[in-house]
Every structure is written in C-alpha cells, then in structure tokens.
Amino acid sequence: MACPMRARQIRFIWGQAMRTSFRYLSMLAVCLTLLVPVWLLAQTPQPWRDQGVIHLANSPYAKLHTIPVHAVTIRDGFWAQRRKTAVEKSIPSIWKLIEEHGYVDNFRRLSKGKDVPRKGPVFTDTDPYKWIEGVAMFLQSGDRPELRAIAEQTIDEIIAVQEPSGYLATQFHGQPLAEGRVVALKDRLTPAVLDWGHEDYCLGHMLQSAIAYYRATGETRFLDAAARFADYIARDFGPEKKPFLAGHPVVEMGLIELYRTTGQRRYLDLAAYILNGDQRIDRPLQRVIYTFSGIPFTERTHMQGHAVRAMYACSGATDYYLETGDQKYWATLENLWRDTVNTKMYITGGLGARWEGEAFGDAYELPNSRSYSETCAAIGGMMWNWRMLAASGDARFTDVMERMLYNAVNVGMSLDGTLYCYANPLESPGRTDPNRHSKEGTTRNPWYDVLCCPPNIERTLGALPGYMYSTSKDGLYVHLYDNSLLDWHLEDGSGLKVEQKTNYPWEGTVELTVTPAKKKEFTVYLRIPGWASGAKVQVGGKTLEQSVKPGEYLPIRRRWEPGDRVRLDLDMAPQLVTANPQVAEDFGKVALQRGPLVYCLEQNDQSGIEELSEVAIPMGKKSTEGFQTEFREGLLGGVEVVRHRGIAYEKAASEGALYRPVGFEQKKVGRDVELTFIPYYAWANREPSPMRVWVPYVPAGTK
Fold first, then answer.
1. Backbone phi, then psi, for 634, in 5-degree steps?
2. Measured between alpha carbons, how far is 137 from 455 in angstroms, rounded to an integer?
3. Which of 287, 391, 438, 481 has the most CB atoms in a 10 Å sphere around its CB?
4. Which residues, including other chains, have CB under 8 Å from residue 437's CB and lie 6 or more apart?
C-alpha cells in the first residue's frame, strides 16, 4: 500500500506544480499580451508625430519642408512668455467662456437631448474646433493632461452628433437658430445656404482641428469623423454632381491637408473644384467679391473683399500649387501678394481697411483710427506667407510673416491672456465706438459672440515652434529668432541640433550652435531681415567674406562639425518710417520701428502732454538720429521703450476755425517735450488711453 500512496502523492505534487506553473505562465502571457502592444507601439514608426504645421514631405512643388512642432523647444525669452500665458491663462479662460455661452451645448442638445436652445451665430461649431486645435498644438510640445481630458470629452460629444451620412453641423439640425431661421433638411449644403450658412467653414476648421489632434496624439477618432464629413461632400458634390461653394474659404486648406495626411486624391480634387468655382451657381458680383469665392481663383487680379476669407482662400490656393505646380495659380498668387504688400497692408502687417464688410479697401486706402485689421486676417496672412515661403524659399515672405506675428497677431491677446482685440486700429482716442465686436466701447474684451480671434491666436502660438525652421535638399533654413533648441535631422536622415541664444527682439545678437550628429557638409540658410541694414555674420569667430544682404537668406555652406558657432549681429537702432505719399492719412507723418517691432505713442507715457493729436516729431536727414532706448522690466511685462524729442503745441487745432483763407493760418507755438514710445502690441493693457502709430513730423530745428 505504501507504494501506491507514494505514487498518488507524487502525482498530486506534480499536478500542483503543473497547475502553479500553468497559472504563472498564464499570468506571464497576460502580461505579455498587455506589454507587446506597448512595445510594438514603441518600435512602430509614428509618422503622425513628425508632420509639421502643414505636412509637405511629399509635396512635389515645395522647395522647403516643414519640421514638427515638437522638434523645437522654445526656451525662456519673448515667445516663451507669450506661449506660457496662452496655454495657462488664455486657453482655460476661453474654454470656460465657451461653456458659459452654450457653444458646446449646441452639440449636447443633439447628442444628449439637453433642453436648451441653440446659442450664438451659425458658425459657432468652429469655436470648439479651433480651441481643440490650440490645445493640440500645445500638446505637440508636451503633454497637458487636464487640457487633453477636456479635449477628449468634447471630441466625444462632437462625434456623437454626426449623422450616418457624415454630415455634422449643429446649426442646421432642424431647430430654430438664434436668429429665428430654420433650414430644412433638403436645403442643407445648397448654394443658397452655403453662401451664408458656414457649413463649409465648419468642415474646414473641423478638418484642421482633427488633423492637429491626430498629429499631437495619434488618436484617429476625430480625424475619422472629419474625413466622413469630407467623404460625404466628395461623394455627392462636384462636377456633374450637386453644386458646392465656399461661402467662407478655409475648407480648401482643410481638404488639401487631409489629402496630405491620408494620401486620398479625392480630397485634393474636391479642393480644386471649390477653388475653380462652380459656374452653374449664379451669385451676385458683390457676394463673389465679399466671399472671395465663386469664380476661378486664377481670374483674381487684385486683393478685395472680406480680408479673412481672402487670406484663407489664398492659403488654400497656395496649398494647391504646392501639390500640382499649376503655374497659373502661382502667377495669380504672386500678383495678389504684390498688390497686398505694396498697396493694402498696414505697417503692422494688419490687413483690412474697412469696417464695412471687414474688407480690403482700394489701393492705398489705409485709414488709421477706422482701421479694421482683424486679428484673424493677420493670422490668415501668416498662413499664406508661410505657404508662399515653402514654395519659393524667398525671404520676402518670411519678412512679412514676422511683421504680422510680432505686431498684428501679437497685439490680439492682452499681456495677461484674458482680453482680446478683434479690430486693431493704428490710432485711438482710448475708447472705440460701440459695435458688435466692442459692445462697451472698449478695445480689448474677454468675449466676442464672433469668437474667431481668441482661439485663432491660441492655435498660432501653440504652432509657433513649427514656424522657426525648414529643411531643404541641401540643408536647413533658419526663419525666426528666439531662445530655442532644434532637435531634428536633415533630409538625408542625419541628426542635427541647433541651439539659439538671443534676447531678440530687444537685442540684435543671435548666437547659434550647430551640432550635426557627425561631421557633414550642408548649407545653413540664415535669414537677414529686410529692415536689418549693416548686419554682420561670423562663423567660428571669423567674419564671413560673402555679401550679407537684407531681405535675403544668407547661405553658409561648409563641412559642419559638432559645436560650430554662428553669430548674427543685427542693427537694432530705432528708425522713423514714412508711407507712400498716396496713403493720404499718413502724408506728413512718420512711424517708429525698431527691429521687427512697430512702436506707438500711448497717452499714459507722455508726461505733461494733454493731447496726442497736438504733438509732432522733428526729423533730421537721418531717420535713426535722436533716439534713446531703455529696457523697463516692470512696464508692460518688460519692454524696450524708445524716447525722442518732440514738440507739443500749446493751442489745440480744434480751437481754430474749420476753414480759413490761405495766409490767415494760426501760427502754432510749440515747446520741447520728450516722447516715449512703446511696442504697438502692448497698447491698451492699462487704463483706456489715446494711442497713435503715425505722428506728424516737422523739419529738425522747428519750434
């Protein structure tokens, strides 16, 4: 009996051991099952992470190629401060206001049956879209769990609204709009509704937002939903199908970026159809002008109409050129660009002279106090010039982009990140006329029912690292200057780091340390700003012998070694600028510019001067004479102020007769004063105060 018992004990022990081993093996298998996807994810290429603000890696007519936002770390300096304010103050505060005003409830009333009326104008879907895009751009620089959680929840609520067809626009789901209009299902996406209803506009911003979020996280749910809406349009609309138009251009950019992201040609073809204008649609000429759509893009001869629409249309057309190389498009784009920068752009880079229609005016029609210069128009101008730069490698586009960024875009958000400008005049009595974008008559406001500008600023500042460099077949282009570190590679895959140390734009010295992974010959194209006459460049401590020309990229070709240094010295002397004599409002006046910054007078800083309208500035033969500069750490977040002798007249012109015979003019008596200029972007950040950019000038020696 002992032997059988021992045998049973052995079998029992063996069985226990086998069951224990199996249990541990099972646990190991479960762990491996959980870990293998993580390992595979780490080993699998993630192309979405390495796509730039626009993805040009496969664009055949792009001379320059973008780098991803995450490839550049912006360190302490001018833009780091503004980006920190945007992500920590602006983005959270705007989200709170979007919620309070019911713009997300527009989705919830449809997905969750929330019993609330639809709020806001017809295009409010784009406000959460652009907010998510702003978050996505900052996520590309590093994770922000709280913002990502809000974005994920909002994406779920957006997707829940989408109809089986792919249609997704809350303004036309059969319920009355805030304005009392109802659009029947059969009338959605018809030309009559598209002309004003912004369904195409909502799709465009949905596409841009979803693509940005995909590039930040690799998450495709939002991208898939946006693509379904685009597929619905591509399937049912176009030549020999239902007619379609862009009532507010932006969808063209979104579709072409979707083509770049997915490789699906139908999206590029749909954008081409929209840009060409469907000739079956009969629209009044004034609508064709205002919306900058409805006729073939290549028939445009000058810049006109709604400034934001025009900039978005030009951006989409440049995207189309980058993919097709259509020379008719390039010729049209060049012509429109010259018309814009030579006759219709403010010294700040602002665009749009008229409040009526938020539109461009005639050539040289650039009023100051009634300047519209919507912040979104400048952002659209940046987008367009970025694309023109990619197509050409020409520094003139970077110069305009930088001018817009530092002045006409940067002014749009207050220094504390909670107030915004919609319109940006170049002269102000301190308070604006009450209007739909400034109900209390204030320049900066926390909220606008037309909320396009605040989230547009957020997504621009979030994307900023992606604008600093580009690559080309033979090297690296350096576009913008700020304390930063580039950690990327050349187009042949060779690793490259570039560190910038600078106090730009307050100081003109930029030191770059170029560190390739190994010794390698390539070209670094260093941008010499158009305003920077007398710029000097040193490489390895030796002054370059080649010519350094303002407004061009300086090609520095050599066999680069790790730690090679480049030093760029820019003359930051303030200079007075005059306008073309055909700009009637600026005749006899000057503006002040220092580096990329345009300056202004604000009443707060002018001791003993009662009215800004009664000052003039003496100007000698040299526009850079007579200035003193001083950095004031405690003023407006830290700014370089510029002081210059001025003349204040004792008797206001308003006290004289409106008209008088020649020879009976009242002689003005002036006294010397000191004028203090601040950067234009910083105005209206204290108590309301008069401001002006353009100041009358008199010959030096005048009293």
1. -90, 5
2. 12
3. 481
4. 422, 423, 448, 450
- Helix (H/G/I), strand (E/B), else coil: 486: strand
Beta bridge partners, 72, equal 486
Residue 363 within any structural domain of the chain: yes
Q: Which one-letter amino acid corresponds to residue 318?
A: T
Residue with tokens 């479960």: 30
**Final residue belonging to a domain, choices 569, 594, 627:** 569
Residue ranges in 218-281 assigned as alpha helix (H): 221-236, 251-262, 265-276
pLDDT in the model for residue 14: 46
Together in a domain, 529 and 502 = yes
Question: Whose CA is closest to 386, among 106, 53, 89?
Answer: 53
**For residues 421 and 444, is the Cβ–Cβ distance under 8 A?**
yes
DSSP string over 329-362: HHHHHHHHHHHHHHHTB-TTS-B--BTGGGB--S
- Look at residues 515, 550, 569 and tell me which one is the last residue of a structural domain: 569
For tokens 């379904």, the residue is: 228
Of 458, 459, 496, nearest to 476 by C-alpha is: 496
* Residue 673 CB contacts under 8 Å (≥ 6 apart), including other chains: 606, 608, 609, 615, 645, 646, 647, 648
Q: Are residues 542 and 581 in the same domain?
A: no
In terms of Cα–Cα distance, which of 498, 492, 514, 510 is closest to 559?
514
Residue 429 shares a structural domain with residue 501: no
Here the CATH number for the domain that contains residue 209 is: 1.50.10.10
Please name which of 517, 526, 512 lies closest in space to residue 476, comparing C-alpha atoms. Answer: 526
Q: How far apart are the first and last CA of the chain?
A: 130
529 within 8 A of 479, measured Cβ to Cβ: no
Residue of 580, 598, 597 whose CA lies nearest to 589: 580
CA pair distance 601, 692, nearest whole angstrom: 5
CATH number at residue 509: 2.60.40
Which residues have CB under 8 Å from 407's CB, separation 6+? 348, 349, 350, 596, 597, 598, 680, 681
Residues 163 and 261 in one domain: yes
Cα dist from 316 to 273, 295, 322, whole Å: 12, 15, 10
Can you say whether the dihedral through the CA atoms of 550, 492, 255, 234 is positive or negative? positive
Residues 495 and 434 grouped into a single domain: no
Contact 685, 636 (CB under 8 A): yes
**pLDDT for res 22:** 40
- Mean pLDDT by 10-residue block, N- to C-terminus, for the chain (703 residues)? 41 44 40 34 63 97 98 98 98 98 94 87 96 98 97 97 95 64 83 95 98 97 98 97 97 98 97 96 96 97 98 98 98 98 98 96 97 97 98 98 98 98 93 68 90 96 98 98 98 98 98 98 98 96 93 98 98 96 96 98 92 88 83 97 92 72 70 95 95 92 62
DSSP three-state, residue 526: strand
Strands 615-619 and 695-699: parallel
Is 57 inside a domain boundary? no
Which residue matches tokens 């909670």?
418
Per the structure, how many domains does the chain have? 3
| Residue range(s) defining the domain that contains residue 461 | 65-467
Question: What is the value of pTM for the model shown?
Answer: 0.92
In order of 398, 470, 546, the CA distances from 537 in angstroms are 19, 20, 9
Look at residue 6 and tell me if it is in a domain.
no
